[in-house]
Amino acid sequence: MRRAVRALAALLILLPAVSPGRAASLPGAAEMIRGFEKVVFGAEYTGAFSDSSYVKKFVVPVRVTIEARAAADRSAAVRAFVRQAGRSIRGLDIAMAGRGGASNFTVHVVDRRAYAETVRRIYGNPLMATPGNCIVRTLYGRDGITRSDAVLVSDEGDALFRRCLVEEILQGLGPLNDNSEAPESVFNDTSRLTSFTPYDRLILNMLYDARLRPGLSQAQAAPLLPAIQRDARRRLPR
């Protein structure tokens, strides 16, 4: 079995929500491919021995559970976004785990006071830094992602929670890097977005195209990306 590596993504959000862009505002093919390569072939944070330079994605069904420890019950919002992701990303099998069923993606919803403790428990490191308002840990190897855990702060506003929910679940599916130049994307930490935008739907649909196998390097994937981008764009609703 190939050694799994760990990656985490943290997010600090201070801005209010705005409306997402329409599909018609998507950048051209070349810019879209550059944006895809930025978030897929890398990771915002990696361990000392990590190699994030290849395609990372689930190749098994993703089954989600919620660890709800916040005062407010955010479970309905989590379930709704999992359903949206399942409808929006072709090639991805994602759903809530059945009662008592096994899961490979846990969404931990906590109030601020429990955030650091929860992150440190997931990592098994009582001294690790816990930046931002939300974080995702993803275990992966060249055969694909095996598990993700997202920790979201619940009690610092609806806009912040929604932003964290969208970004961390999407990043836990494979696009682990940020892109400060991406328009209309939650992968751009300077954006104000709280929705699954057309830009991000295109990124995820490109990633979960069957032609793009986990473990492919950027050089190996490059010849495939023009056709993958074109086909994924055609499938987006107008």
Could you write a compact summary of the structure shown?
By secondary structure, the chain is α/β, with parallel strands linked by helices. The protein is 33% helix and 18% strand.
Please outline the helices and strands:
Layout: E1 5-11, H1 29-40, E2 45-46, E3 62-68, H2 75-88, E4 94-96, E5 105-110, H3 112-123, E6 134-141, E7 144-153, H4 158-172, H5 198-207, H6 218-221, H7 225-235
Parallel strand pairs: 3-4, 3-5, 5-7
Antiparallel strand pairs: 1-2, 1-6, 6-7
Gross morphology: globular
Q: What is the helix/strand order? A: EHEEHEEHEEHHHH
**The top level CATH class name:** Alpha Beta
Cα(first) to Cα(last) distance is 43 Å
Question: What structural category characterises the helix and strand content?
Answer: alpha/beta
Tell me the Rg in angstroms.
17 Å
Largest sheet entry: 7 strands, mixed
Question: Within the largest sheet, what's the order of strands?
Answer: 2-1-6-7-5-3-4
Number of strands: 7
